[in-house]
Specification:
The protein is an alpha/beta fold. It has 4 helices and 5 strands; from the N terminus they run βαβαβαββα. Strands 2-1-3-4-5 form a 5-stranded parallel β-sheet, with helices on both faces. Helix 3 links the parallel strand 3 and strand 4. Helix 2 (45-56) crosses helix 3 (73-84). It starts with a strand and ends with a helix.
């Protein structure tokens, strides 16, 4: 099986949790890699162009859903981009987030608890 590339969308306030999440791929011999476009400043058209290219080059997108997600402009844009490009998308709840924390643009998209099995199942489905 070829390596899968998975883009990770997240609110910048959740960067520490994103590092833990992507650490799963570094701590195990897994057939995938995580990609992100972390930006600590307002994003611009150049960032959007580069980000869209990265998303299009991935097999799937995982959006880390937290209480910060609804206000995270970059993450919301990445989710919209994945949908526009028809890249498979899944949400993973982090930091005690629940269905009520799910951004409007994630309605109709499966969101699951952060477990190794849930992540693995999504990646294997790509």
């Amino acid at each position: 099986m070829a390596n899968k590339r998975v883009f990770v969308a997240f609110a910048i306030e959740d960067e520490t949790t994103k590092i833990l999440f992507t650490g799963q791929a570094k701590n195990a011999k897994v057939p995938y890699e995580f990609v992100d476009m972390s930006v600590k400043e307002p994003f611009d058209e150049k960032w959007k162009t580069n980000c869209r290219s990265r998303i299009k080059g991935c097999d799937g997108v995982i959006a880390l859903i937290s209480k910060n997600s609804k206000k995270a402009e970059g993450e919301l844009w990445e989710i919209d981009c994945a949908k526009e490009e028809k890249i498979p998308l899944m949400g993973i709840y982090i930091k005690e987030a629940t269905y009520s924390d799910k951004p409007d643009n994630m309605y109709g998209v499966a969101c699951k608890e952060w477990t190794w099995d849930n992540v693995k199942e999504f990646i294997e489905s790509l």
